[in-house]
Design goal:
Structural class of chain B: alpha/beta
Structural class of chain A: mainly alpha
Largest sheet of chain A: none
Distance between the termini of chain A: 19 Å
Low-confidence stretches of chain A: none
CATH superfamily of the largest domain in chain B: Response regulator
Number of domains of chain B: 2
Strand content of chain B: 15-25%
Helix content of chain B: 25-40%
Shape of chain B: globular
Helix content of chain A: over 70%
CATH topology of the largest domain in chain B: Rossmann fold
Number of helices of chain B: 14
CATH architecture of the largest domain in chain B: 3-Layer(aba) Sandwich
Radius of gyration of chain B: 21 Å
Largest interface: A-B, 32 and 40 residues
CATH class of the largest domain in chain B: Alpha Beta
Strand content of chain A: under 5%
Radius of gyration of chain A: 20 Å
Shape of chain A: globular
Order of helices and strands of chain A: HHHHHHHHHHHHHH
Largest sheet of chain B: 8 strands, mixed
Oligomer: heterodimer
Number of strands of chain A: 0
Chain lengths: ~300, ~425
């Protein structure tokens, strides 16, 4: 049953560019990018119990680094990607040192403050970041000589990236380290008593989440070919967090589902509903009231209840 | 009601609307179906009030012409950019790839336009822009982009000359929002004012969302002759209110850029605005036959005067109509459409306009003074500068060799500490 569903999903995902128009293919690429981003945030929120309101920092910094490296400093895409990811990871490592001094609300506020600092810098250092005008005229890379300019090519590229990201993060949370992470989330004192180092476990997760946030940022800037300080804003962090919570934090598929929902409401439903912000609010209200743990856990519960009833 | 409002299917051909919804890659045979015009406007978020005016005016324009331009039906598709660059891009893609539009009007904010212009150039979509970023028609022009309104500084040049020559101001303080539009406008104002012999003694930039202008008002140097407001949206109004509360209006004259005391701002103000001189490419009181139709009709329908935003899309409609007439409404030939738009010599609500080789408008700029007429505040035109170019009186080649206007360029040499 599970395999059939998976095969069906794979078939649809692979064949989409052949049947759908460019607009829908591009929409799907954006969904993959948002899903990678939400999955990386979920490592912190769902599995680590660290609610962050500053995750857009990693997306934005990776995107800005890549844009600057390719336009201003004349690097090739390969080198630029490497520098962006290394830079983002280094930043996550440093931010982790600061933010992980606190937990809970304190942690949330520190991540928020750090991301606001970056947002402000992107705005004000207009000599480097071009400020409010953003950096335009970017190109997409051509890995192994394959151009990603067409919507279909970029679609497969981001699909591949999303699959790798999903598998890598699944391995991360289902490993022994993932178990200790969940242990730290639920019982940090007991874990410490058992000889684990809760701080180190959190920090490694923080850096790993920053890494995938950076990957999402690279894809984001390749897709948009433009970067502006709004990508670093609290709104983009909050949107990702909404996606994670709506889909079901702490589940593997939940964030991807939630991110898809947010993106579709924002970019697709807004074409038909003028007050789409209100629709977004109503949908979340509905999720919170009916499925407080998120869509994926909620549907699972519903499915198991339906399963049991006839027998 | 909200569901169908955006899909303004105004075509008499019932099938066309359904087709644009259902089949994304459907290409129409030449001349069949309506001309599809996309409007990118920020209808939610902080820029919403301007975006909604843009939609209202363009809808009114089409309705007055029975949705027919140059003998062919026109379908308007409005997309909400939410004032976010990434959303603007998705929406531009939606208009191009899903709705197969023939041309696009908008968007408003510079960063929205900058986010989509590469894409529209690649897809060869004629775009009638209203945003002000200087470089879009200077150092990085696109063959598919024209601007009908003004660059950030284009309207500031005449005011700078007027302030020095006619108002006899010698020292001026500038204040503007701290983003590219404000930087560019103040830079242009400073350049012409100082080249005339005046001095900019202080430049203040305030964050876009400033809840309280008190600390900035307190900084203003009171030995200046005037203060130049380069603000956008409701910021000018909010600054001015505190400026007056501090009793500074009797000491220092107030002058403003093209959005500072826009008609949309003016309707919330009282007598304190009287006598303030601003500059713009439009005023609701303009005395030409076309505006005599537009402004009263807009006021009748929506109960307020049209300003910068409403006029910008109405103007786009006029230019588009002129172009469609020239090419006999064969909008499928995008090269011809673009050439017709650029070659336009059409009479509009802002007076006669034409385009330079970069796609930027050359047209009248008006110096206006706030007066009270028929019980409401209006921007009465006191002087017209005809055919103002984005390069003012400077040599074009020299102009383009300089870096684009910014917070620090041209350097302000006369600041008083």
């Amino acid at each position: 049953m599970k395999w059939i569903a998976l095969a069906l999903f794979a078939a649809v995902a692979l064949l989409l560019p052949f049947v759908a128009g460019d607009f829908y293919v591009n929409l799907a690429s954006q969904i993959f990018i948002a899903a990678i981003f939400a999955l990386s945030l979920n490592l912190l929120v769902g599995f680590g119990g660290m609610t962050s309101l500053g995750h857009a920092s990693y997306l934005g910094v990776a995107a800005y680094l890549s844009a600057l490296m390719t336009t201003r400093y004349g690097f090739g895409h390969g080198a630029a990607a490497l520098i962006s990811i290394l830079g983002t990871v280094a930043m996550a490592a440093f931010f982790g040192l600061i933010a992980l001094r606190a937990t809970g609300l304190g942690f949330l506020m520190i991540t928020l403050a750090l991301s606001q600092v970056l947002w402000g810098l992107a705005y004000r250092m207009s000599g480097i970041t071009n400020g409010d005008n953003g950096i335009a005229g970017l190109t997409r890379p051509a890995p192994f000589g394959i151009s990603l300019e067409s919507p279909a090519a970029f679609y497969w590229f981001s699909l591949l990236a999303a699959i790798i990201a999903f598998v890598m993060m699944t391995i991360f949370v289902s490993s022994a380290f993932g178990s200790s992470l969940k242990g730290v989330r639920d019982q940090p004192r007991r874990m410490a008593a058992l000889g684990f180092n809760p701080w180190m476990i959190r920090w490694i997760t923080f850096v790993y989440a920053g890494f995938w946030g950076g990957i999402a940022g690279l894809l984001y800037v390749y897709y948009n070919k433009y970067i502006h300080p709004t990508s670093l804003s609290t709104t983009s962090s909050a949107e990702a967090l909404l996606g994670v919570i709506a889909g079901g934090s702490g589940t593997l598929a939940g964030p991807a589902v939630g991110a898809t929902l947010v993106l579709l409401l924002k970019n697709y439903a807004s074409a038909y509903v003028e007050r789409w912000n209100m629709l977004l609010g109503l949908v979340f209200l509905f999720i919170v009231l009916v499925m407080p743990t998120g869509i994926v856990p909620g549907l699972q519960k519903l499915a198991s209840r339906l399963w049991r009833r006839p027998s | 009601m909200t569901i169908s409002r955006r899909q303004f299917v105004v075509s008499a051909l019932a099938g066309a609307g359904a087709a644009s919804l259902a089949s994304p890659n459907l290409s129409f045979a030449q001349g069949s179906g309506p001309v599809r015009v996309g409007l990118l406007a920020a209808k939610t978020g902080p820029l919403a009030s301007g975006g909604i005016d843009m939609e209202l005016a363009l809808t009114m324009f089409l309705k007055d012409r029975d949705h027919t331009l140059g003998g062919r039906k026109v379908e308007l598709i409005v997309a909400d950019t939410a004032g976010v660059p990434a959303t603007a891009r998705t929406k531009a893609q939606e208009l191009v790839e899903k709705n197969n539009v023939h041309c696009i009007i908008g968007p408003l904010a510079a960063f929205e336009a900058l986010a989509i212009i590469d894409y529209l150039t690649e897809k060869q979509i004629p775009t009638l822009g209203v945003s002000a970023a200087e470089d879009m028609t200077q150092r990085h022009p696109s063959p598919w982009y024209v601007r009908l309104t003004s660059t950030s500084a284009q309207c500031a040049y005449p005011l700078a000359e007027y302030s020095f020559k006619e108002l006899k101001y010698k020292k001026i303080v500038t204040i503007a929002d701290d983003f590219a539009y404000g930087h560019e406008m103040c830079a242009g104002f400073q350049r012409v004012f100082e080249d005339n012999g005046g001095k900019i003694i202080q430049k203040i930039f305030t964050p876009l969302a400033t809840p309280d202008y008190g600390s900035y008002v307190a900084q203003v140097k009171t030995d200046a002759d005037a203060i130049f407001l380069g603000t956008a949206g409701s910021n000018g109004f909010r600054f001015l209110r505190q400026f007056i509360e501090y009793g500074l209006k009797d000491k220092i004259a107030v002058i403003g850029g093209m959005t500072a005391l826009d008609e949309s701002v003016l309707r919330n103000m009282g007598d304190e605005a009287l006598g303030i001189i601003t500059t713009s490419w439009y005023s609701a009181t303009l005395d030409n036959p076309l505006n005599k139709v537009f402004a009263p009709e807009f006021r009748k329908q929506f109960k307020y005067d049209p300003g910068y935003y409403a006029a910008s899309t109405y103007l786009s409609g006029e230019v588009l109509e002129g172009a469609l007439k020239t090419i006999k409404a064969n909008a499928e030939d995008k090269k011809a459409l673009m050439a017709a738009i650029r070659g336009n010599n059409v009479d509009t609500i802002r007076g006669p306009i034409k385009f330079d080789e970069f796609g930027n408008v050359i047209g009248n700029v008006y110096i206006r003074k706030v007066t009270r007429t028929d019980g409401r505040l209006v921007n009465s035109v006191i002087k017209t500068y005809p055919d103002v170019s984005q390069f003012w009186t400077y040599n074009k080649t020299e102009f383009l060799k300089n870096p684009v206007y910014s917070r620090d360029y041209p350097p302000a040499k006369n600041l008083e500490l």
